[in-house]
Model the fold of this input.
Amino acid sequence: MCHQKKNRGEDGDQDAMETENGTTETIRSHFMANKSCRLTDDSYHLQKNGYEEIHVPALKPSVLDPEEVLYPISNLPKYTQPAFDGYKVLNRIQIRMVNAALESDENILLCAPTVSQKENYSF
Done:
C-alpha cells in the first residue's frame, strides 16, 4: 500500500496525525487516495510514524539506437562549451536538439524531463 487517505470525522473536522518530531499535522485531501500500487522488484517502502516512504530506483538508460551517436562537447562552437563544463558529450535530448539550436534561427520550445539540462540550450 502506498498511502491511504484518512476520512473526516463525523463532526466534519479533518483528521490529524502525529509526525516523527512530535508535531501534529492536519491531514488534507492532497494525500494519495490509492489503496494499493505495484512497485518494481527493486523498490521498497518504509512505514514511518504518520506516513510511508516509497523508494523507487531511477531507470537505467536504454541502449543507444543505431542512429544515435554521442556528440562530443569539443565539436560545439567554442562560445558554447563553457555551458557544458565538466561534461564530455551531450546527453540524448541535447543530441536531438543540437542542430535546431545551432543551425537555425527559429525559436525552440523544448520540453524534457527534469535534470535533462534543458537550460544549456539557452546559449
Q: What stands out?
A: Confidence is low (pLDDT under 50) at residues 1-13. The chain is about 10% helix and 15% strand. The two ends are 45 Å apart (CA to CA).
